[in-house]
Every structure is written in structure tokens, then in C-alpha cells.
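Build the 3D complex.
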Amino acid sequence: MNTRTQPKLARLSDALATYEPVIGLEVHVELGTNTKMFCGCPTTFGGSPNSQVCPVCLGLPGSLPVVNRTAIESTIRMGLALNCTIVPWCRFARKNYFYPDMPKDYQISQYDEPICVDGYLDVDVPTDDGVTTVRVEIERVHMEEDTGKLTHAGGAGRIQGADYSLVDYNRAGIPLVEIVTKPVTGTGGLAPAVGRAYVSELRDIMRTLGVSDVRMEEGSLRCDANLSLSRSGEPWGTRTETKNVNSLRSVERALTYEIRRQAAILGAGGSIKQETRHFHEDDGTTTPGRSKEEAEDYRYFPEPDLMPVAPDPAWVEELRATLPEPPSVRRKRLQQEWGISDHDMQSVINAGAVELVELTVAAGVDQASARKWWLGEFSRHANENDMELTDLAVTPAQIADVESLIVEGTLNDKLARQVFEGVLAGEGEPSDVIKKRGLALVSDDSALVGAIDEAIAAMPDVVDKIKGGKVQAAGAIIGQVMKATRGQADAARVRELLLEKLEVS
Amino acid sequence: MSGITRDEVAHLAKLARLDLTDDELDRYSAQIDQILDAVAKVAEVADKDVAATSHPVVMENVFRDDVVTPGLSAQEALAMAPAREGDRFRVPRILDEE
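Done.
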């Protein structure tokens, strides 16, 4: 798969028997504002290269940035949702570095004066003995701007060995919020799962707040994972920072890998180098990035082109009043409303279907059926097509339509699945798919009677058995009728008609 | 009293991608030292009751509405670039071969 040389890895259980992991997570969230952080360029994803730029985000001489009010409001709401203190006064700072992803040669960020500080997030971590809640403390939430997108030419598309690079600045200047945790200690072997659960919970909160579409695959939520090991009672070890950890599963894998890698080095008497490492999705390994010894000197100073931000307490309270029900509270409420077990609820959560099931129930479908469709048929379809459940072309209203047809006997489960297959394939509303594919159950008795007569004639021995009292043998004839009607007969009705005809009941 | 060292100036020059000769380093170290001395006089005059400022105009909360405004077309943006390829800016190799 690749030619990376593999370092020695300790067994996870051995590593955890000797060392205590400390993790820290830095999560970047791209805000879903209409415009960039400091200029009026649109933030739409997927535009043609350099079609969403202006003198400000290109860093042209004489241009001046102005802060996007909605971006500030979103950041304050995020801070409040994470139980942070909103500071009364803060500033932006220049982070100076030479790299072509920022045309100004600096990034506007916040340094020692972040807008939100000292929060926490309680996350539910699934374990072998049920769910345990871990409090992850938040150090800070700060605002900055995203960078441009580099494409490397030559050298297999990687920066190492590339001949030159190409830059698209559409993304440069999109509002970015960075959420930094305090070191999370004392979680032992759960550390990788805690990391995953934290990012998952954060994603749910951002989605509920409506501040970002938080699509990890499109880069609107990105995660860097820090990890160090120490023997219990001793000072924390040297940490590594793994970049590009861009799926929930990757968070867990990257942390697990670093535990095993660092434990092997420490176990052999070596020492950990403080460095940035890159995570590789294909084999779950990390490799060292550039040494940052010199690059770390960013010469931050207060951004002279921007005025300080001083959120008025009344404004903050106004924003607090807009906070929706936190996802964790909502999950507990829904579990109670649906009356399902912890295990069943966890399945809904793991499938990422909480909101979809909720909306489907609100559309009039009973909770068991709503869960069945989202966790069964739809999850399978999403997996096969590498999509998110939320991206499927099926609506709660359509599920309600199909369910009512099942209840009234026009469809059975098998046909309903075919209806959804059509809906997902873009063949229109359920009623269109039923018409086009001819999927309604045959409820016309005369059509059924013909098929039943044929089956009776074809299986005289079965008929004798039924007449002799073995009613369960009717299954063979019913099966034959279902086959003849291509599954579109109502099996219960066929059975009724058959037994009537044979004068058994 | 500020006393910036020649090594610090060399470090700054490196961060700023300036390739200074030994002569230039000597000259600029002395000049920067003088500038820092001059600025340090502010600290002698300004008492503790004068807060450090980063901007001459005292204003806060200057915001704009989140409304799209016209920018540059890709053609206009790229017309200023020393090199381009398609609709992207072309830049020299970023990392030297290790």
C-alpha cells in the first residue's frame, strides 16, 4: 500500500500497563457564514479556483480588513455552548510566516487574547461496561482565518519533491474558529475513545448551533491530536502533535498509534522528540513532519488594521438566549420519549441518526419503524455509496408516506424497500416510484384467486396435507402464489383465500 | 538599555528572509539598538496609569454585515501574478529536497 518504514510498536495493552496517556485536541471549525472573516467574498465550497477573492483576502497593498459581525456572534455562541467565559475585551494578532497559502505572509489570528476561555464539555464515552461520562476542559476558543489551498505539481502530488505548487485562494480568509482543550488526563486506555467522543460531541454541538456544516470530509472540521505518555506519578512526557486527523475514526486510530509508537521508544530507553506528525488514513500510521524548531517563531503582535472586540454583556446574554437544547440533553430526552434501551439509543447515536429519527417520528412514523429504516436500509445504502445519512435523498415526509401505505396494506416491507430504492435513486416521490415500477400489492381478490387455483392444481399432495389438518403446509402454496405475483400479493390475504377455498379454517 | 544582540538581529533577518552580509549585520544591529533606545524613552515618560496601546484611535467593535460584496474575477486576480497555471497562482517549490 505504501513504502513507509514502520517503527517498532508496543502492544497496546503493554503500553497502557506501563504508561498513562495525556491527550489534547485542537479542533478547527470553518464557520458557515455567507462571507469571509474580514471581507465580503463568498464562502461557498467548490467554486472554480480564485473566483472568490478580493484585494483584502489577496493581501493587496492598501486594502483593509473589517470583521464579520456574524462570525463574532457564531464564535460567542460556540463559546457559550462550551461553557466558556466570554472575555470583555480582546484583540486580533498577526501570526507572521512565509508560506504561499497566505498571500499576506501573515495570518490574522488571536494569540494571548482569545475571545472565549475556560470552558468544558462533558462527553459520553462508550465502554465495555456501558457509557461513562468524561469532562473535557476547554482552554480557549479563538478566531482566525483559513488559508488557501495548495496543489503540488510533480513529486507524486506531495510537498516533498514537488517541482512547484499551485494556489487557490477561495478558502483564504474563511472564518475559522479554533477550540483548544486543556490536557486530558487520567482516562488510561479510554484516551483514544475520549478523543473520538469529544470531537463527535463537538461536531453535534456545532451542527445544532447551526454555525458550521462541520463536514470532516470537506475540511470544515479538522482535528490535530496531541499525545504524550508518562509513568504514573511522574511528570508528563514530551508530546507529539498529529495533524490531518480528519474523521472520527481517525482520531481514535491516530491516538492509539501514537500510544503504541511512543511506548515502544520509551520502553527501549529512548526519548520522544517534540514534533508535528502527519496521520495517514490508508494504514493508520503517523510520520514526522517538518521540524518546527525555527518555524515556531511567529512574531505575533496586535493586528494594527483591526479594532479590538469588546462584547457587551447584554449582547452576550442575547446570544445565550439563542442557544438550542444541548445535544446531550436532547439525546436523553429523546431516549425517554421513544422508550428505548441505552444500547438501542447508542446504536442510533453511532449511526449518526438521532436527528433524522427525531424528524421522522415528528412526521408521524412510529419510533421503531423510523429507527428500523434509518439504521437498516438507509445506513446500508449510505455505507455502500460512501455518503452521510443526512445526504441521502429521502425525507421524513416520504418515509411517513411509505409507512402509511404499509399500514393500509398497499405495500409490504419488501416492496417498501424497493420504493425507497427508487426514491434514493432519484425516481421521484414514493407514489411516482410505485406507479413507474408497478409496486403496489395485489389486493384484487380475483387476480389472487387465479394464482391460487393454479398453485392448487400444481400441488395436489400439499392440498391433501392441508385438508388432512396440516395447515402449516399452506406455506408452500402461499409461496408459489407470491412467486407468481412477483411478491406483490398480500400473503395474509392469500392464506385467507386459500383456506377458504379448501374449506379449512 | 534595550540591548538587542547581533545574534538576535541575525535571527530576525532569517525569519524575514533577508540575506544580510556581516557588514550589514553590524550596521543594522547598531541602528536597531538606537531605535529601541529611543522607543524605550516612552516608558520613562508614560507612567503606570497609561495603558499600553496598539492603535492610535480608541475604537472598538467595528463590524460589517455578513453580506456578499463583489470582489475580483479570477482573471483580474491572476493578471497581477508573476506566474499562473490555469486559474491558479503558480509558486516556486516550497520545500527544498532534504
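The two ends of chain A are 65 Å apart (CA to CA).
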